[in-house]
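User: tokens in, sequence out, please.
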């Protein structure tokens, strides 16, 4: 598996497909912290959303990196279609680590925050960024590596899912019945809802319940994607 991940990373770098999303991400972070004394939670919410967008972009690029003939050869060497899928996800995890660390520690190193970090802020910050990374990977996988993948509308569909998931709370407030439909979209508001103001982060039953819900959603979504991927690959 390590050889496959290394091969994917080298192919991704040589393809130069990483340049646009990475450049966009760094520009986003630099602009976000162009001024000093910015609030901690809301700033991290913005960088989390940036990772959501970037990892969706990266995932779709990674899954469309191999030609069909090359994909079949790789699967035969790995001896399992699941190993191919997990290898792709592991490659994305390796790509994600430096981006996540940069998003978290850049404002700390540059002393951009008007407050001080605490242990619970560090925990929530890593949790929120990691969750948004996985959201991006799941959305990207759905639209590039499953039976829902269509070359013509893949990017448009990814934008639609991201926008709806980010605006789902507002949509539900306008149309209450929408909550019975929007539950299939990534529950973004159950994370960013705790970063909307500058009040200290409170660890209570609501944030614990929402965090458990988000984790369950991630596992269920990943479990659903596996058979969809296998069905596409025949």
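Assistant: Sequence out:
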């Amino acid at each position: 598996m390590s050889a496959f991940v290394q091969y994917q990373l080298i192919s991704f770098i040589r393809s130069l497909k990483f340049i646009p999303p990475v450049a966009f991400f760094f520009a986003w972070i630099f602009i976000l912290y162009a001024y000093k004394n910015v609030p901690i939670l809301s700033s991290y919410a913005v960088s989390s959303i940036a990772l959501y967008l970037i990892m969706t972009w990266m995932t779709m690029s990674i899954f469309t990196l191999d030609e069909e003939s090359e994909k079949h050869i790789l699967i035969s060497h790995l001896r399992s279609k699941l190993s191919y899928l997990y290898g792709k996800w592991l490659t994305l995890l390796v790509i994600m680590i430096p981006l996540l660390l940069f998003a978290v520690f850049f404002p700390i190193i540059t002393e951009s925050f008007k407050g001080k970090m605490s242990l619970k802020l560090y925990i929530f910050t890593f949790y929120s960024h990691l969750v948004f990374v996985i959201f991006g990977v799941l959305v990207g996988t759905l639209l590039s590596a499953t039976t829902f993948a269509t070359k013509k509308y893949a990017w448009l569909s990814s934008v639609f899912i991201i926008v709806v998931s980010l605006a789902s709370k507002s949509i539900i407030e306008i149309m209450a019945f929408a909550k019975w439909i929007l539950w299939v979209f990534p529950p973004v508001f159950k994370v960013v809802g705790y970063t909307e103001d500058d009040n200290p982060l409170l660890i209570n039953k609501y944030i614990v319940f929402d965090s458990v819900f988000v984790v369950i959603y991630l596992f269920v979504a990943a479990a659903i994607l596996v058979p969809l991927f296998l069905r596409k690959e025949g």
